[in-house]
Amino acid sequence: MIKIVTIVGARPQFIKAAAVSRCLRNEFADRVTEILVHTGQHYDENMSKVFFEELDIPHPKYNLEISGGHHGAMTGRMLEAVERVLLEEKPDWVLIYGDTNSTLAGALAAAKLHIPVAHVEAGLRSFNLRMPEEINRIVADRLSTLLFCPTETAVANLAKEGVSAGVENVGDVMFDVALFYRERARKQSTALASLVLAEGAFALATCHRAENTDDPTRLAEIVSALAEISASLPVVLPIHPRTRKLLADSGLDKKLGNVKVVDPVPFLDMVALEQTARVILTDSGGVQKEAFFYGVPCITMRDETEWVETVEAGANFLVGANRAKIIDVFAAIQGNQCEFHGQSNLYGDGHAATAIAERIVGVAP
Prior knowledge:
- This protein is of the alpha/beta class.
- It folds into 2 domains: 2-172 and 348-362, Glycogen Phosphorylase B (Rossmann fold); 180-334, Rossmann fold (3-Layer(aba) Sandwich).
- It contains 16 helices and 13 strands.
- β12, α14 (308-312) and β13 (316-318) form a beta-alpha-beta unit.
- α1 (11-27) crosses α16.
- The chain is globular, with a radius of gyration of 20 Å.
- The N and C termini lie close together (11 Å).
């Protein structure tokens, strides 16, 4: 029996892990035991029993409850706690996702104990070392034995860094998730009704990255743009508690105009909103891709993106935190002046989770 310890710490990581965990339980139950570890990095009230039921995954065996503090302190505490779990569980593999501090701590703890690491979403690069996520993903990739890339671009990024052993383009597990949950969300979610929104007649916005929320000038530009858009199209903004506090502290919450600010929504409600929005405005990496999967034009309020394929396909527009650019692109989208010319299979065939599970089981020590 192969034992895998999966380390996650943020809601998007649980969503990605759900796809792989489901595959491990359904297809390899007689060969694999998976232990789920939640570092606690992102506290989210919506990550309750309902959240895990929606995703059809068991609650984590370990909740380390580590959050807050500067990056170094947080990662150090996680490293110590994850090491204790690994010493107790003695897994054959450690499975990590993405680019958070939890990802880095899991990779470091496993490597120091000589436990092979499998990294899902390997090879992503923004080429901006001011982003903590960029540092995390580079280190995690260098410590990993299996590097599961979501795109050929990611494979090429690793090749440029001299990393080729264990690298494979398996597709994107988020595409698996999008295919699996889209109809369930349409049937079960009541988000549109409760928020009084009409399908295809509203904008969905998210804003949480420190590069935007911690910079008063950038945040003011984004708020101004959303307020202007809300004058002509309803805008719903599910907002992280930290972003809400920063808006209140700066007085920008009073300048949001008609923007409908709501608490973070449950997973299936978010999927339903993403599918039915006229346009999505975001600084989230995951939401950019989900917009692409559902054929919704996306305005990305960042200076760069790891998901360059969506930009090249004409489905995603990088505007930074520039009010004028945001408004200009929004106007072009509203006027149907933006043409999507990409390929639907840029992120695989919807079976990335199966490929990942097969590789881990097939090459287990």
